[in-house]
Amino acid sequence: YAQATFDFQIAVASHDPNRLFHLLHRYPWHLETLLRIAELYHYSGQAQESAEILERCLYACERAWHPHFASAASNGLARLDSNLEQNKPMFEALFRHVVALTRRGCHKTALECSKLLLGFDHADPMGVLCCIDYFALRCQEEKWLLEFAGTFGDCKFVDGVWKSCGSLLNFPGFAYSTAMALYSTADDIATADSALLKAMLAHPYAWTATLWKLDAAVSNDKDWQEILSHPHFDFSNCALESRSLEHLSEIFATRHHLLWRPDQILEWTKRIARIACQLIESQEPSDFLD
To answer: Global pTM?
Structure first.
């Protein structure tokens, strides 16, 4: 395998894709070669071929597992150190497989594979937490999402700024996705209202970016234009202290915006956005958040 890896590095340095295919013929189960060829297929528009190569790569990983690893993985007890060079192809292959699954509309399978990937290393080296909430909503696993999110945290008014005090709620995606999950499952709509209000107070730019993606649905709505012009939402990206948080908000908007497009959802969010603006203007905590 060391010789195969050495030959792979030479093939990559040559910038000749044909050398990768020749190398794969010699070493049909070499993981790095399989991953690079899957990438070549992907960028050439051959999605089916790319998916097949990824499945072949995952099969090669499974063949290398310890006999007890599969049972441990099914019980959520298997761990892999993502910092070890030997383990990195497994993480990359599984994550690319998740992406390919969701593109095919297999959101339930993508969710289960994401759980496995996150279980391998809780440090989340592949950023699964940025998409696992989306998969849960797409396959109607709202109850699992709420259970996974655990404690929703709280949103408090500190030194003139609304701040989220939860762990997963520090991710804009989880803040808004848990609100939508509550809206879809809760008998008491007030609980969902409170969760969405907290998300809008803590992560206004995520919602502004989402509305930009839904421009066709809100561009002619005077109410939305008034809300977007409010200081809390207008130029909310400039108020962010972290480029990483801005990037997470943009990822959320790009991936989730179609979930918020139905008229019923937009009317609900408009009502809560108005309350958020009023609350910001009052500069006082509200019983609505309890």
So the answer is: 0.85
